[in-house]
Amino acid sequence: MIHVMILEDDPMVREINSRFLGKLSDFKLAKAVPSIKEAQEFLFKSRVDLILLDIYLPKENGIDFLKWLRKEEFETDVILITADKTSNMIQEAFRYGAVDYLIKPFTFNRFKEALDNYKERYYGIKKLDTIEQNELDKYIIKNTLNNEYDNSDNDLEKGINKYTYKIIWKEVEKLVDEYKTAEEISEKSGVARVTVRKYLEFMLKEGKVDKIIEYGKVGRPQHKYKNLT
């Protein structure tokens, strides 16, 4: 059983998330708390495998709590559930080890997707003493940035996820007068560079972006992309 804490100051949202969690197998609500102090007190005395964490709390910040968790070396994973959709906040959350990021308001299906992905990785890796790269990649790729291998949008081809597509396109859409590399778009979107490159190539096939290749004196040639729509 995966023990979950919900840290959310809004009692209505806290109740909704608790109900959502109650619909999923293999998850148990260990505690639902409105403040970082209460969360810290509970962590020192009880087991928590996963925390569903809001960012904006009264006079507190969920990212600061995430940093505290890492400093104190708690073996606890975190999924951010927040209305904050700024790229800087998303990047910081992933830098400090968040395994997923849900932007309010979200659907039960997206909530379930995040928890199911987490469960698959949690049990899949835990049961093995060692794991080969090809097996590990299934968990890393599937659980990074909204499960890009979920073909949940019938209008997109297999391997392209609509959530990740929207995140990347939001940045590409701004590139009307200039070309940017996948790395530059990765920094803006918070999505891994290899994933951004894959989606840019898909957008190229769609005819939504243009690509140029710049050759420098040193290093590999740079692939740069611009919005064509």
From TrEMBL:
GO-annotated molecular function: DNA binding; DNA-binding transcription factor activity; phosphorelay response regulator activity
SMART domains linked to this entry: REC
GO cellular component, one term: cytoplasm
Keyword field contains rRNA-binding: no
InterPro entries, per the entry: 2C-system_Tx_regulators (IPR051271), CheY-like_superfamily (IPR011006), Sig_transdc_resp-reg_cit/mal (IPR024187), Sig_transdc_resp-reg_receiver (IPR001789)
Response regulatory domain sequence ranges: 3-119
Signal sequence bounds: none
Keywords: Activator, Cytoplasm, DNA-binding, Phosphoprotein, Transcription, Transcription regulation, Two-component regulatory system
Top-level taxon of the source organism: Bacteria
Location, primary (coarse class): cytoplasm
Compartment(s): Cytoplasm
Pfam families: Response_reg
4-aspartylphosphate PTM sites in chain numbering: D54
Name used for this protein in its record: Transcriptional regulatory protein
